[in-house]
Design goal:
homotetramer; magnesium ion binding (chains A, B, C, D); 291 residues; globular; 12 helices; 6 strands; nucleotide-binding (chains A, B, C, D); GTP binding (chains A, B, C, D); alpha+beta; six-stranded antiparallel β-sheet; 14% strand
Chain lengths: 291, 291, 291, 291
């Protein structure tokens, strides 16, 4: 029995190759995590276990896909970044996005018990994630995207910290706290925290204030030496690398697998982070740290 | 600190809404399952535990998304079908695909221990799945797609059954078995099985020969009454339903949640399956079976 | 000097193949025709010369592209319809749309002098058109699209006829006429025309009331015989034809070239037009009229 | 009569907005110009009248669309370039492409008689053009695209010049000339021209060797001053300008309309052309030449 009679249906599959030489960001988000965080008793405003579990899953995704150059996570979302020169899966959008979403989900579910030992998963209410790919044509815009997420982390965390302190320590109702915070700016919230509750927001955990940055660790470079060549990368490097052969790409992947994947809670808006870790934006592996 | 400075990056997100009034098939595939089936000692040519786990995960996806009207699974792949009238997630492709992939993965990982009690998962080698959406503009073509997958199931299973019987029972090397089977047609393989090993392929398990069909169960209809109205669905029903209000859609979802999701191993190429279960192609819930 | 150094730029070209087996409508619109109609003194509310020129250009497009099965024009817009089985230019969207736009423009400019002998074109203010392709998955929806355009023609023409009669024959200012017509329904406008100006709208030219339908003429069929098989076309015919070989397609094109392209001003909302001309929706040439 | 019953068909129109902040190249090509050049007796290998007509049409397109920053033409093709900051028609692909194709076609047909006074157009065989949009994410790649076209111009022109000289002056058959040229490199062709026919290829017309570059003329800048800031444009300028308001964009358009559109036949592969005309890549109008 041949299958040729029905095989014409394959012609309905349409290509979804992403524009070459552009940054690819795959952002995933927890599905219905508001409800889910209630069900599993996540601590407000930040549950360290939940964030550590997100980071553990993200680290596994980074290890599984050496083509990824950096990831940034906050709350129940994570952004994974492929370099413009990335050729993985011929840059097919659905393949890239679903591979990340599925790998992340698998590790999140598998490691749940490690981070929530006394709160078993309750099927059918399992955590899951959706995701999508977005293209950014230049390094400047990619960095603005990363800054956008980190500023968002700060804004949300300051709000949530203040709100939940007013509720939990101040005994206010959710509605009252919400109403009082409406229209306030950062300095207002800092003042509420400090004056009423003696809390200095600056002393809050960095993971809450900055989110989590995941990348491969090489020897840090001296920012001064680096700074003069920081521009022009867009125009030169990606093109060269997009022409790299399959075997060269495999070699690069092997090199990247040797690097340790680390989780950091640092500023990624200013230049310093990027200048000291030029391998992230260049797409070229750095020097492994000496033992 | 306002975020407006960076918010322009949102303008790079591009819409991916699927053409209205067309069938949406989301097909997911196990990533690297050839290697994975070796690692976890899947039985050749078919591991009933692995298929049951696939089906269990698919059932949960069907329950989670009442907009799905049918799913078909074979080996490490599963096709999930949304009706042309589906408005879920405004028909955004990435959202539909990643939701299915992630929900499926979550349940697959979570239920692994139930189906493989003595073979624990070995991180980082966790099962994962990729996926994509394909559009089919008419019911005829959707049915041809389903037929394509089931014919493929048959072709592969007959080959694999013969191959592994030659190797496992006949003591042949993989290479020798492969060489002998090259160029053979179905009747040749049936004969090898029967004459050499006394195996009647027709007696093999239906789940292996037919794959697995997952759908909501209502009262079966008399095919004769149904047959005369089987055409014209494409032209009428979807349009009507695409205009259904949000509240009507929610009502439909509730109705669908009441139906039992069943797993069947039957022919879906001939008309009978579809004529007796008109709710699958019409997108309108049937009558719940009486208690 | 080889060109290989730069040829990588070709990899940035992305495919734009339209989903198979769906109706393709290419709608083109005059660019800035409001201003242009003032510049060239088009008669209000309808300039027969301008419409005839549009139709003449559309007929040439239909002759040039035998794959087109019907076209419908009103005012400065024209919709050209490709059958679901169309394989022209591998269904590449930009190629289909620009070919129609350019061919239409060429004939419009070339024949301008024939229809406006005393109003020469004044460069750089030349007429031009933009266009786009839209997919319709079923015959029902394609017909609804055609009905939408013809109803639009009727609504606009009744409004414009009433408005310009009030201004031109009634001596009202544009603003006053506009104000009076605001919120009126069809019967109100009919009454204004009849009571104040003795004009029976039904007696207006069909080309103004119905727009222009362009198609290949074959022997009309008896609607009664046809009616019972009018459904099901979507499911059967297109698939068969999408599998037709290149040579069969060429043969079909030759047959279609033999048919006369006619311009009609008739109702295309009711079934009769389509039932008597089954070749339009079936995509299969009819019988040539006997001499 | 309301139109609401059919208006749902509008929901089938899908967005085609091009990725922000990337170069847009719309390349148009003559349809069937090989045959057409025979029909209208174009001179081989280059017909100056045909090229001048192409250039005249391109100049009108540039004038009509001040958002275009440069265009390059060779043979029957023309590439029109929009700056990454371009917001015209909300960057809708079909709208941008069809507007250029239609405007170009209109002027080509209208001015035909000026360039071919003794060769009137023979309907229905009118010249027409197809077109498509391609995105280039960085200035480096855009320049490589332009270089690609100009190198292609050179390669084809050297071949055609040699081939037609061998046929026209050398009395060879097309087949013989083709056979002899197979596998030859540039120097071989130069030698054939020089040794056999006394033709120094360098002395051929620049328009044939270099193609035609069309742009707005401002005061040339000193390349040395410019060179140090030539990098980094990608990262900075486009983003700033994509945020420019509608009124600022209109102002820029007015400024650009004041500049003269010129046709040049010069090298655009080396840096000099671009360094002396920084307004082309910056997207910011230069200084108008003093009177």
């Amino acid at each position: 029995m041949a299958n040729s009679k029905y095989e014409y249906v394959k012609s309905f599959e349409q290509p979804d190759v992403l524009l070459p030489n552009t940054w690819i960001v795959v952002r995933i988000d927890g599905r219905g995590f508001h409800k889910l965080s209630d069900r599993y008793g996540f601590i407000k405003p930040n549950d360290r276990r939940a964030l550590d579990l997100m980071n553990a899953a993200a680290v596994e995704v980074m290890k599984e896909l050496p083509d990824l150059c950096i990831a940034y996570g906050v709350s129940d979302e994570y952004s994974f970044v492929f370099h413009p020169s990335c050729q993985l899966f011929e840059r097919r959008s659905a393949k890239l996005v679903t591979t990340i979403v599925s790998t992340f989900t698998a590790h999140y579910i598998y490691q749940w018990g490690t981070y929530f030992p006394s709160t078993p998963l309750q099927p059918p209410y399992l955590p899951s994630f959706d995701g999508r790919a977005v293209l950014y044509p230049t390094t400047r815009i990619l960095r603005d995207y990363m800054s956008w997420r980190q500023v968002d982390c700060h804004i949300n965390n300051l709000y949530n910290t203040t709100f939940w302190t007013m509720v939990q320590q101040g005994g206010m109702s959710n509605t009252d706290a919400e109403r009082e915070l409406q229209g306030t700016v950062s300095s207002d919230k800092n003042e509420i925290l400090f004056k009423r509750f003696g809390i200095n927001y600056n002393n809050e955990d960095e993971i809450f204030k900055k989110g989590s940055v995941v990348y491969r660790q090489y020897q840090l470079e001296d920012p001064k030496l680096e700074s003069k060549s920081k521009h022009g990368d867009d125009d030169e490097a990606p093109v060269d690398e997009s022409k790299t052969s399959k075997s060269q790409q495999d070699k690069l992947r092997k090199l990247r697998r040797k690097a340790q994947v680390v989780v950091d809670h640092v500023d990624i808006i200013k230049d310093e982070f990027w200048e000291r870790r030029p391998w992230i934006l260049s797409g070229k592996p750095g020097k492994l740290p000496e033992a």
